[in-house]
Design brief:
By secondary structure, this protein is an alpha/beta fold. It contains 14 helices and 24 strands. The protein folds into two domains: 23-136 and 143-267 and 475-493, Aldehyde Dehydrogenase, Chain A, domain 1 (3-Layer(aba) Sandwich), CATH 3.40.605.10; 271-455, 3-Layer(aba) Sandwich (Aldehyde Dehydrogenase, Chain A, domain 2). The structure holds 2-aminohexanedioic acid (UN1).
Length: 512
């Protein structure tokens, strides 16, 4: 029988002890109407069943949206500072549960414990930030052009928001969406990635325990066509937020447009890190490793291209490749592991296919390229950190998002040429420059065409109170994080109060 209360992880090699997780709809943990479930397995050891989750369908989505619609009628009237107090309480609870949430996440997603602790911390940071926002949500008051008339604009919630979230930051990214949405007075239905539903479940559980009223946050697990599709098409859903691939973003964006839903898309990246001759080389090598191979290269912000000026090119390559070869690959639950597995078999196949593509295009592979499948690796989706050098900027490995541990190093002559290479892709999420020259740093901050630029740091590591998102095919102009999220989850209402006791006509009643 499905139950929400069986405690404890699955035994290695068995699925019978795996805990069953339910959907959360209208304040109740419920089974899917389909009666079907799916397994969530550990990508570092596929014998380990992390949990059994509901394989939901349209009926479940409809019920969740209906619960959210009903809850909205009351939640929108709760004063924002009170709504925010619940989010503050959730932050405190997440701190208590941080280690367990991090371990669950490493088991279901594969990234190393240091990083999954960071992912939970990012949700905590987000909760504190938006808890404070309950007492701000500022809007302008402004003079009216007419006497005895008052003018202001206030932020109002939109209604039911649908969220479709990815597996690479399975708690942080849901928190970027859910927390500002509910502080602003909306209600939500979230569909977590099928590879990592547990971390999103853990976040929703915390929100429920912290006192979010029934129906305000609902979670429906399952797959894109059966859950994501009905969610984005549902007429009662007034806003959709997706973090995912550019291909899925195109579908969600065009679907949302048909019913004029608000739609926020955070999509792919092919993020460049430029290293100039005057850079601190030690710093650049370490930054490039962290940016390229952290999260096994599975961040939209991953450093997938390193553009190096010719004067230090060979030294950088030698040191970078030497370090990449020595990265310790393994199960993320081992504290000494530096890089975990790919999320699943199909992602691993994609990563390996780019090894072939790069080699066929004539780039030189200096290390890596192989699947690791012997001994401790035999039950997981592991591969070696892979570095291509002398990559031409137009090659597919330098143009397409791989989402794996494959880094392309591209030589350049000077900063202007590096910026042209950096910008010469369809995406524009993150970017980085290593230099000690302040003039060059400021020129790059202006000219790198991306939503994020780092100076003397790699392309990953965004903080939650700054806008997060990108230009071109990376999104549709919205930003998550900080004020960007408040802008997305509210609609402006302009209010005019005429206390003159007569009919005053704007633009018309004036003495010229
Ligand atoms: C992502 O790349 O998919 O900036 C999200 C970072 C993290 C979030 C990344 N704070 O690297």
């Amino acid at each position: 029988m499905a139950t929400d209360t069986l405690a404890g992880p699955a035994m290695l090699g068995t699925s019978t002890k795996a805990r069953v997780y339910k959907n959360f709809i209208d304040g109740e943990w419920v089974e899917s109407s389909t009666g079907e479930t799916f397994e969530n397995r550990n990508p570092a050891d596929t014998r380990d069943v992390v949990g059994i989750f509901q394989k939901s369908g349209k009926t479940d989505v409809d019920e969740a949206v209906e619960a959210a619609r009903r809850a909205f009628a009351k939640w929108r009237l709760v004063p924002a500072p009170r709504r925010a107090e619940v989010v503050f309480a959730a932050a405190e609870m997440l701190i208590e549960r941080k280690e367990q949430c991090a371990r669950d996440m490493t088991r279901e997603m594969g990234k190393i414990l240091k990083e999954t602790r960071g992912d939970v911390q990012e949700a905590i940071d987000t909760a504190y930030y938006f808890a404070g926002e309950g007492r701000r949500m500022f809007g302008p008051t402004t003079p009216s052009e007419l006497p005895n008339k008052f003018a202001m604009a206030v932020r109002q919630p939109i209604g039911v928001c649908g969220m479709i979230t990815p597996w690479n930051f399975p708690m942080a990214i849901p928190s970027w969406k859910l927390l500002p949405a509910i502080v602003c007075g909306n209600t939500c239905v979230i569909k977590p990635a099928q590879d990592t539903p547990l971390s999103t479940y853990n976040l929703v559980r915390v929100l429920a325990d912290a006192g979010v009223p029934k129906g305000v946050v609902n979670i429906v697990s399952g797959f894109g066509p059966q859950v994501g599709g009905p969610l984005m098409e549902h007429p009662e859903v007034r806003a959709i937020s997706l973090t995912g691939s550019t291909a899925v973003g195109r579908i969600v964006g065009t679907t949302a447009a048909k019913s004029f839903k608000h739609c926020s898309l955070e999509l792919g990246g092919k993020n460049p890190m430029i290293v100039l001759d005057d850079a601190n080389l030690d710093l650049a090598v370490e930054g490039g490793l962290w940016g390229g191979f952290g999260t096994t290269g599975q961040r939209c912000t991953a450093t997938s291209r390193i553009i190096v000026q010719k004067g230090i090119y060979s030294e950088f390559v030698e040191r970078y490749v030497d370090r990449a070869k020595r990265l310790k690959v393994g199960n993320g639950l081992d504290e000494t592991t530096e890089m975990g597995p790919a999320i699943n078999e199909s992602q691993l196949k994609t990563d390996l296919s780019y090894v072939e593509i790069g080699s066929a295009e004539g780039a030189k592979m200096k290390c890596g390229g192989n699947r690791l499948d012997k001994g401790e690796y035999q039950y997981g989706y592991f591969m070696e950190p892979t570095v291509f050098i002398d990559v031409d900027p137009k090659m597919r490995i330098a143009q397409e998002e791989i989402f794996g541990p494959v880094v392309s190093i591209i030589p350049c002559d000077y900063l202007e040429d590096a910026i042209e290479i950096a910008n010469g892709i369809e995406y524009g999420l993150s970017s980085a420059l290593y230099t000690k020259d302040v003039n060059k740093a400021f020129a790059a901050m202006r000219d790198l065409h991306a939503g994020i630029t780092y100076i003397n740091a790699p392309t990953i590591g965004a903080e939650v109170h700054l806008p997060f998102g990108g230009v071109k095919a990376t999104g549709n102009g919205h930003r998550e994080g900080g004020m960007g999220a408040i802008d997305f989850y509210t609609e402006w209402k302009s209010i005019y109060v005429d206390y003159s006791d007569k009919l005053q006509k704007a633009q018309i009643d004036r003495v010229d």
